[in-house]
Design a protein that fits this description.
- The chain is of the alpha/beta class.
- It is built from three helices and seven strands, in the order βββββαβαβα.
- The chain has one domain (2-13, 21-55, 68-94).
- The strands form three sheets. Strands 3-6-7 form a three-stranded parallel sheet. Strands 1-2 form a two-stranded antiparallel ribbon. Strands 4-5 form a two-stranded antiparallel sheet.
- The protein is globular.
- The N and C termini lie far apart (37 Å).
- One of its GO terms (biological process) is trehalose biosynthetic process.
- GO terms for molecular function: catalytic activity.
- This is Trehalose-6-phosphate synthase.
Length: 95
């Protein structure tokens, strides 16, 4: 169980590990990103459920990011939307 400071109640945890994050990232500058809701069945199917859980996502943002500065900037953008999103370079390590 996880404590939700905003509501003052305990919510169960939900960890979603998928090939894509619930957002798609698009570079808007050298170290800035915009995020849009990803189209897809998993994201759409879980939208109504995730509000009831302390939800954490692990996945790929839809773009390959090279260099630590770029990865750090994207990770910061992912953290700003209020959901815990973790960036992984799954496909780059496979291909």
């Amino acid at each position: 169980m996880s404590y939700d400071d905003a509501c003052g109640e305990i919510r169960p945890r939900l960890l979603v590990v998928a090939n894509r994050l619930p957002v798609s990232a698009k570079r808007t500058g050298e170290n800035s990103w915009s995020l849009e809701m990803s189209p897809g069945g998993l994201v759409s199917g879980l939208l109504g459920v995730t509000a009831q859980f302390d939800t954490k996502w692990v996945g790929w943002p839809g773009v390959d990011v090279y260099g630590e500065v770029g990865k750090e900037a994207l990770s910061e953008s992912l953290g700003e939307n209020g959901t815990d999103l973790k960036l992984i370079g799954l496909y780059r390590s496979i291909c």
